[in-house]
Amino acid sequence: MGLKSAHFLCGGAVASDLRMRCFFRLHESPEEPHILLECDSTVLDSVQKHLKLYKIRRKVNIAPCLDLSLWAVIPREQPGDIASSLNKCADQTLVLTPDPRTEVMGWRLITKKEANLLDIIPGSHIGNIQDYHRHRYKQGIPEGVKDLPPGVALPLESNLAYMNGISFTKGCYIGQELTARTHHMGVIRKRLLPVQFSAPLPLENIPEGAEILTESGKSAGKFRAGGDELGIALLRLANINEPLCLKMPGDKVKLTATIPKWWPKTAGK
Amino acid sequence: AVPGSQWPCGGAMAAVGLLCRLWRLALGGWASCRPAPPRRGTALPGGSPRPAASASSSRPGQTESEPGEGRVYLSASCVQRLLEVAEGAEFLRLQVEGGGCSGFQYKFSLDTVINPDDRVFEQGGARVVVDVDSLAFVKGSMVDFSQELIRSSFQVVSNPQAEKGCSCGTSFSIKF
Q1: Nearest to B54 by CA among B7, B121, B117, B110
Q2: Closest C-alpha to B99, from A11, A24, A3, A174
Q3: pLDDT digit of tens for each residue in chain B (176 aa)?
Q4: Predicted ipTM of the assembly
Q5: Which SUPFAM superfamilies does the entry mention (chain A) (predicted)?
Q6: Looking at chain A from residue 57 to 86, which residues have their Cβ under 8 Å from any Cβ of chain B?
Q7: With an 8 Å Cβ cutoff, are B99 and A172 in contact?
Q8: How far is B173 from chain A (nearest CA, A)?
Q9: CA of B95: which chain A residue's CA is closest?
């Protein structure tokens, strides 16, 4: 599976639905290397089964870590100088590493379940999980199977290449030829982008794969996931600066798309 | 086998192909009517040598495959090549690993150690060994030694469980 690099590496290699995961490697492990794999809890079983399918005879144990907690640590001020204020309690903290995807996602922290967060990060405050999701959608960071449906979401359109999610040097994996060719030579016309509705919209009211249209009624893309007035949508880059609307049964809701600040400067072309 | 003059289809390759086919028939026929000589150190059940047509090892207990486990077949070119390259106790080991452009890949190596979960397939004095986990992925396949312009190598051909894999033949996916 192409393991390398000190703190973390991002992205699965085995098959399409495993691509959208992050791998975390424990910092010091004198004996066998341990790797913690973060995944959407709703697909824990299928991720395990998937890994076991390809394991065959390798001496690898795959087991869920039900005694660990995963935290996102997002700085309130501008990111950058958070490292100095973090106090690592070594016995409670297994992993503390910058989120491999992008600076705006802060840090990833893995602790024992009973750990006291205020000991590990003094001055922090434990927020609501909904705020975390809002932060992600505002920044346009997809996560989990709702944002990245297996078999539907494509790695380049999902901006994995902007999030350190694809290695172009690791050799063969399922879909490697198409991914490498498109990245180096092809044009990516659609991408997942953060969108904002003119007013909060209950998610249950939005049909799956609801179309997003330009003013002239042409299809500009599809809504993927979100909450309240925020969300992410797969949109044609050619249309993102135009006024857009979400097509709903019996209604149209205005929305605007933005190019995330953390995308590389050359992106969005 | 008669040299090319009698086959008007022309081209050395065709003639060689025909030669190989004739040769394989001869080898097959030969093996079925001549019992395999027992290898030194091998204890054969019942005391009398068994014909090699079924092409599986007769080492007691460990390495004979159960009916459900399946087996692999060795092509004539595979047997010939193995007889040429295997030295001493060496045999050809075939393993299946995760990886490659299609999800799984074949790995060939020369080995000398047979483990309790190995299954041995012998033909004409050449041995191919597959562990039970890998055998589940390759049962019913043929192991061939193919010589092409681009490479000469051992290959797994006609795997009934595999979907079309990569063009170099190393990686494959499984029909579910």
Answers
A1: B121
A2: A174
A3: 444 344 344 344 433 333 333 333 333 333 333 333 434 333 333 333 333 333 444 443 356 677 788 999 999 999 999 999 999 999 999 999 998 888 999 999 999 999 999 999 999 999 999 999 999 999 999 999 999 998 999 999 999 999 877 777 889 988 87
A4: 0.72
A5: Folate-binding domain (SSF103025)
A6: 57-58
A7: yes
A8: 9
A9: A57
